[in-house]
Amino acid sequence: MDGKKLELDPVWEDLDREAAEDTAQLVYELQKTAHDAGHPVPLAIGVDQENGGVNSLFDEIYIRQYPSAMGIAATGSTDLAFEVAKATAQEIAACGINWIMGPCLDVLTNARNQPLGVRTTGDNPQEVSAYGVAFMKGYKDAGVVTMGKHFPSYGNLEFLGSALDVPIITESLEQLSLSALVPFRNAINQGLDSMMVGGCAMSSAGLNVMHACLSDQVIDGLLRTDLKFDGVVVSECLEMEALSHNIGVGGGTVMAINAGCDIVLLCRLFTHQQEAIRGLKLGIENSMISKSRIRESLRRVLTMKSKCTSWEKALNPPGISLLSQLQPSHTALSTKAYNSSITVVRDKNRLLPLSNIIEAEEELLLLTPLVKPLAASAASRALSETVAAASPPEPAVWERSASVMSGERVFRELGRTLARQRSGRVLHTSYTANGLRPVHENLINRASAIIVLTADANRNLYQHGFTKHVSMICNMQYTTGGEKREKPLIVVSVSSPYDFAMDPSIGTYICTYDFTETALNSLVRVLYGELSPTGALPGTISQSQKLDQSKQHWLVEMFNEERDAHALDDLIKTVIEGNPPTQRSELSSATSNSFLLRDSEVLEAHFVVRNSSTQVLYGFCCTYFFKATGTGVIAALFVDPTRRKLSIGHSLHNRAIRTLLQREGIKRFQLGSRLPSIFLGIPTGHGAERKRLRSWFANMGWNTALSRPVCSMIARNLSSWTPPPGMAESLKEAGPVFVFELVYGWNYATEVLDHIKTSNRQGLAEVYKLALIDPQACGILQAKRPEDGTLVGTVVLYNMQSRLSEFVPAMKDTNELTGGISSPVISPAVGEYSTLLQGLILLGMRQIKKQGCNACVLDYMDGDGKFDGLSAMGFDVLHSFEEVSCDAATWTRVPPS
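Above: the chain sequence. Below: its structure as tokens.
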């Protein structure tokens, strides 16, 4: 081959021979062959050496194992990241390798379903950037050139199904620029040598790309022009199924080069490499690839090579002699890194160290999943080609008469290490997608404490289900005397920390970030109290965890009207005064009486956090259980503005949910209430506050994505108000279709209450009952079909002397004589919904004006307030909300008692 062809494909990945000495010999032979053939410069030879579970080069004597990228991030030290990167690069450089395929610069914005896992440092762009640059500088300091990957990010891919489907980035360029591209941009500015462009698709507004590495819009546009990268661009391996199947290796090679790739990566089959060379040759011959394009790539590759190699260096690799010198210090660095990375996320019941929970003569059970062993694990070298059978083998006898059941062999050494510390009293078996078997149940009953290991349980769902099943059994254990006693359970994630990081039902949770022997040795030291764990979860998950750990649990008491009524009035005033001057509070004109329904069909329970010495209330939450519909409602939750972020709201919310869950016949939860009509849901009138509140309630377990917009509205200056001419005409035309009638009193209850059953909205029956029993201050405006007298529409009218008005503070907030219209119900069989709704409200306004009122409140309306018809009548939005509801059976965030 001539020199130029080698320049375009100079990469050997995944070296067949792993031993350092064999690798050094192979690399030397390659360089010697190139030199003897007359190549002007040495070959660029690169490997993946990311540490953790991704290492192309391993030697149990000379090459050290270090934590994965996320494991390093868990140490919290970019200085340690630099040291580990430098040591890694020194070791591969000693073998003659001059190009490391790292660092990973992907921001893990979707941690739940990503193949990257712990290969990235986390989900925070700035943190990923800081560690990525530290890794890059460490590599450079050892004399190797660097490669950022996987541009423009593999951190939020959507997978459609089979291997032939291309994973897709759906984020817009603007979204990518604010997050995923930050580490790439910073690494480029700090001198990144090369960039691998991924084979994923991109689909968003103004961007439709089948494969990023074949797109000039991505490479020449986004990478070269926008990010100003002039280093070497390397394609994703063109042998990936989705790419080779859809385009072919030969055609893909031409497309990659024309898109701006300087090097085309083909790392598996020699036949595919030959196909790529033929495609390249044909592309040049057919003038599809210009010679200037080849020279441009040649310039970049030669520039990169000049930074990392020369013939003097390539033909005289330091080899084993240097590795022997480095071994002691690198071994110490490896141990330090792993010891610093082990993270105890939670230990609620203080199960650590194991001596806290298990006596010397008792047995410990270790349950490990069947997983593919890591190449860098000594246990993997003992693994036979035949995968172990799915069902656990029979118990084996170990040294010291250990009673142990062997599972996946990659974890056997962990079991042995645990057993040595416990005089052999360790039981060990594996678990599979077959779930919890009788053998597992027997061992759980037999053991005094259990350790369950998981490895990417978010992608291997059987592990998640198995662990939760074991947790349930441990929570239901009983002593011989019949007393319930929770059996100690420790869950260890040996890969992605996201498995159970945000699941508080797993009380003791540890993360090791990979399952190499060094990592598991550090784990054992933590379990036995020989090592104090200092690792922290990476990125935003760490911030969430810190908030969770720092929550205070306030004493929540039942609201006592005699004791707390005046204090609640004071708290309401404090909350109102705490609002910005331009922001009208939903609590304006509310009092403690506004929350007391005193209805036999509604079970109400209200809660306070208070200072028992001064009687001052710090927070209040009211709940109602509407028996007729089986709906449990949180109708208000507010905290003294000077005492927010102290977990008062969390404590009140948790008590409210526990109480509602205990109601017999509970079917659904609702956030926001029609009665009382104060908070109809999450207030949404102000952007920043809306975002904060939605996020807070989402974190408490509410699915805010399924919310329904509702609002209260007001029309003022009724004394000078007249109906819109066109609308009045429409109402006259509706006369033959509907007959309108204003009725008063309980005599009309049967027909009215039957009609409102056509709507399943919570609180309707209670509103109408209040109106029907108060004929002096309330009426029901009805619409019927004249031909058969069928009731098809109703709305409640009320004035300021009504009992109903006590639960609508907006009535008093107007500071003038005001009437109210509430809870329209239109039969679903009516085709003229808007006409009938507007007719009922229009007639209601006429009636309210006739009574001398100058304002009219619509206290509960569906939608977002953008009603052309209602606006034309003179209504403006007073308060807007998002009503949130869910089935009680699906509520998963059950707070602790």
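Confidence is low (pLDDT under 50) at residues 1-18, 373-407, 546-550.
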